Amino acid sequence: MASPLKSLVNDDSRYQKSFQLFLERSSEHQCMQDFIHNKLPDILASIGNGKSHLNVIGVGSGAGEIDLEILSELHMKHPGVTVDNEVVEPSSQQLHNYRGTAFIVLVSQKPGLDYIKFTWNKMTASGFEEHWKVKNMTKKADFIHMIQMLYYVKDPGATINFFQSLLDKNGKLLIILVSGESGWGKLWRTYRNQLCNTEISQCVTTGDIKSFLDSRGVSYQSYELLSQMDITECFTEGDEKGELLLDFLTEVLDFSKTASPELKAGVMELLRHPDCSVESNGKVIFNNNLGVIVIDQVS
Ligand code: SAH
């Protein structure tokens, strides 16, 4: 039976608002930045085979904050190399924000981003796949990243297969999702049937992706990133920000108004359970640990 609950991603404006609040209440981007500055440079160093031009694809880039940091590390590892950066992002608001941020970086930095050519694809990952096939594109990519976006495709495995097929020799595909060991993993394992049975929102963790890759015999490297999210406001009945965070946590639009009392009570109890959160100094801190997977194109 189809769930009567609506997915949060159906309402882009509320999704973007709750995502923004999530970024403010969590160390999400901080822990990604630590990874990008400390671990990613070595990963980026081995792509390209000495080519003077690199093709990069960012899938589900959002406002591009993380993408621009990746591009800057790439530039440091491959100075003098030009970059073609394809951005695949269905939200026009997010694309607009990304363009704005890229422009500010462009005018404030010397030598700036003039070594990068941006191509803006206002489309979903599957729209991009179709576009690629229809146009008979033969271009190969050196680096592709999908950061916190595989939840929003119908078939995460098929999406990985397609983008992996675009990798050039020595190319790499980077995937970041919540870790199977995070509070998210626990929440989804418990309430997958109630929360995750819509067509467009999958409760997928890096644990699931690793099982998928293992079953296909694909080798990869993986990393765990420690991260936290302050969810204290969720426990104040009627709190506007708490409700936005709850929508984000459950991926359900207006969760507290539309979920059954039983589901709501169960989710609220689990969210502050030691399997998901620690409580200290009156704060409830949810385990937002992330997983990183890097797939190499060996042949
Ligand atoms: N990578 C960014 C944004 C993550 S939020 C970061 O980590 O900060 C997820 C992004 O995926 C949103 O910008 C959303 O608009 C986008 N998205 C949603 N459905 C998508 C789909 N089917 N294909 C590609 N991107 C999608």
TrEMBL record:
Signal peptide: none annotated. Keywords: Methyltransferase, S-adenosyl-L-methionine, Transferase. The keyword Membrane does not apply. Monomer. This is Histamine N-methyltransferase-like isoform X1. It holds the Pfam family Methyltransf_23. GO terms for biological process: methylation. GO terms for molecular function: N-methyltransferase activity. Substrate binds at residues 28, 288. The keyword S-adenosyl-L-methionine applies. The gene is LOC108886891.
